[in-house]
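This week, look over our next protein:
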Amino acid sequence: MSFRFTKQQSLIAAAVVVVLAAGGTTAALLTGNDKKSAAAPLPSQTATTPATSKPPAPTPKPTKKPAPPPVNYLTGIGAASSKAVIAVKIDDTDNGRPPLNLNQADIVYIEQAEGGLTRLVAVFATNHPVVEPVRSTRASDPELLSQYGKITLVASGGGGDSIPVLQRSILKGVINDLGGPGFSRDDNRSSPYNLTSNLQQVAAAEKGAPAKNVGFHWSAGYAALAKSKSAPSISTRVGGTPVSFSYNPTTKKYQRTVDGVTLRAANGAAIATPNVIVQMCRVATDYTDVDVAGNPSQYTHSIGSGRVVLFRNGKRIEGKWSRPSLLAPTKFTDLTGKPLQMAPGGAYVVLATNGAPV
């Protein structure tokens, strides 16, 4: 039986053959007819959303405790004072004793003057009493006191170049010979040992700077004392003048003595302090500062470094001092480099010559 296709049917049949042939070729490729393995199909690419998490809470910063207020820089008792610091040159000879209200000073320096004599630089801040006898300044005083800042220095006058040196310094000079405020004469004493200064009047007129850190560290307790040598008395020299103290265990203070007798203020109070610092310094003759008798003064260099001995609580502790520049405080340390700790209540600083016995 024979079939006849129309022209249209023939064309459809031819198309079917072509499709089948193509399918066969594809199948051959996939079945390895070319002796090669077929490539592995690509994995489907499924979009994924990254997991989200909350960032860790920040670690809270530790709360800083407020720093304790500074203690009184010149005594270690109570808070730092806003009262003006006033330094006064005070006589240190028998003619000027007993001194008026010297026992109210916070810090007292014993320094060389001329002719082997000593003079005091008494620093007042806690109290502003009337003081006597006020004497003249020396050229080395601005170097010593500039570490305190723009404070006031009270003096009767000054020889040689001492007044010009003072006027060029940062200190505020209140000088009797130049008409400064607060001075008067005590009719019960003879000149020049009868000049008084009312420090309240000076403070009101000058409005000097309050106390700042000048290098003193204060502590009621001090572990170093347990291994320190006993020192019931102190003996050294400043120029040609013996300087001595005797420890009173009842008051826990060193009382200044002359020939074994305790020195006293005009009100009968012992001249005493809980701390004595013997500071060894370079001392040179200053021929530009000569007194009325022609004696050149001695210039104590308080900038530099050297040996220091602290006396407190009836014990002595060896150490070192250093002060690098005019406005820098004086650093007092023990032989290991730790700050020397002074008993609260003020101090006497004996500015002795290098090599002086102590």
